[in-house]
Amino acid sequence: MDIFNIYLPIAEIQFNVILLFVLGFCVGVLGGFFGVGGGWIVTPTLNIFGFPMDYAIGTDITYIFGTSIVSTKIHSGLGNIDWKLGIFSIVSSVIGVEVGAQFIMYLGKTYGTEGLDSIVRWSFITLLIFLGSFMLYDYFVVQKRLSEEERKADDPKQTHISRIQKKKKTALPIRLQSIRLFPMVSFKTSGIKSVSFWIVFVIFFIAGVLQGFLGVGGGFIKMPAMIYLLGVPTVIAVGTDLFNVLITSIYGGFTYAIKGRVELIAAVIMFFGGALGAIFGSTATKYVRGYGIRLLFAIMIIVAGGSVVIKQLEKPLGMPIFNDISGYVVVGAAMLMTSVVLWKLISSYYKLKKSEIGFDPDSIGKH
Amino acid sequence: MFKKFFSRCLLLLCFLATNICYLFAEGKPATELNKTVKVEGLTGLNLFLAQTYNSNRLLFAVISTGTIVILGVIVTYIVSLFIKPAGHAHKEE
To answer: How far apart are CA A2 and CA A5, in angstroms?
Structure first.
């Protein structure tokens, strides 16, 4: 495999070009499909395979910026981006990020670097596992309801989804939208007729605080927040979140480059893989139902939470190997999830083609 | 739609330009950031990047970000030529 090694002049290391391309591709698929940047996959992987941590972060954020241009464009073509909500989310979360960062500074002064590291890591684990479990629970509750409705209804195909939606309308987003606190705003693309500006602000502000506190891109926080708190349809949440990632990562990439922590050649190679992956990932959202996306996302973030738990064992057990195992878990899960998304895309595409050839009337409007 | 997208990219570049002005106003970067990389034995693109990195970090940042923006826009343009999204995605679960 050494013949595929290239010299990276800024990080001053040899690195396998195939690995960079494949890594970029996998994260491109997942980013386009879930609406996340994927820094939590790229950074540990680059680090495990020899990138110094600061270069891994800077290169990762530059690459994410590139692929998010492609994903955002594709989602924009699919009508999946609520631009207005996206701008709201950016402004509100930037304020939140600053508050989160200030809180980190305060904790650092109070508990020292090691204490802070532990607090942040355990908060991260708790958030990932809570969010993942909640999304899994939500998925299975809805699936149970669907199967019950299917059993009862005479014409399940046409009625069961709307019944479930009626049940969902009593949920948190509707309660939040019923709070009349001036000024009211609407988000047409997301189907939100009227919601208080302050509700939207507070949701993204808190997401921003968590983002600043945990030091992550925030895609995996904002995407579920849009779905479960604002009632934004899953595919719109994915597209809007990618727009958010694009804006924030352009600044991140530039500031890391100024600090000299961007390995441009690696970022460009990963970008080509990522752009290709983003095409597949973004297009897959057209074929996979919203709840399917949520299920896969929930599994992915639980695995990510598990990998941080493994990493956390490194110090108390005094075994540096746990750091590597944690990275391999994330990479393995990312590759597996990429295969699932691609398989879903290909199988749905062939089903659609088959139904078009066979003039199956039931297939109309399904995709 | 594509014109809109380009105008948004242009806005992003303006955003970047603002940051560049800010950096000029702030003066030199911190000392610990002035790391240099070795240029001996390097040729072509590697040499160019390493020399730029060592001599002008701001230019290096502009090249890094600009390269990704240009590649992103080119790939996006190619994608839009080959992939015509058939209708809109399902917006409800």
So the answer is: 5
Please state the rounded mean pLDDT for residues A113-129.
Answer: 80
- In tens, the pLDDT along A184-198 reads 888 988 888 888 999
Q: Which of B47, B60, B72 sits opposite A257 (nearest CB)?
A: B60
State ipTM. Answer: 0.71
For residues A72-98, average pLDDT:
87
Residue B87 falls within a domain, yes or no?
no
Q: Is position B32 within any domain? A: yes
* DSSP structure string for A93-142: HHHHHHHHHHHHHHHHHHHHHHHHHHHHHHHHHHHHHHHHHHHHHHHHHH
Q: Given B23, B57, B89, which is nearest A260 (Cβ)?
A: B57
Beta bridge partners of A184: A196
Q: How far apart are CA A24 and CA A278, in angstroms?
A: 9
Residues of chain B below pLDDT 50? 1-3, 5-31, 86-93
| Residue B92 covered by a domain | no
Q: Kindly report the backbone phi and psi dihedral angles of residue A194, in degrees, each rounded to the nearest multiple of 5, phi listed first.
A: -155, 125
Nearest-CA distance from A58 to chain B in Å?
11
Among B19, B34, B52, B68, the strongest candidate for a mutation testing the A interface, having the largest count of A CBs within 10 A, is B68
Within 8 A of B60 by CB-CB distance, chain A residues are 257, 260
Domain count along chain B: 1
Cβ distance A85 to A232 under 8 Å?
Answer: yes
Residue B19 with chain A: CB contacts under 8 Å: 251, 254-255
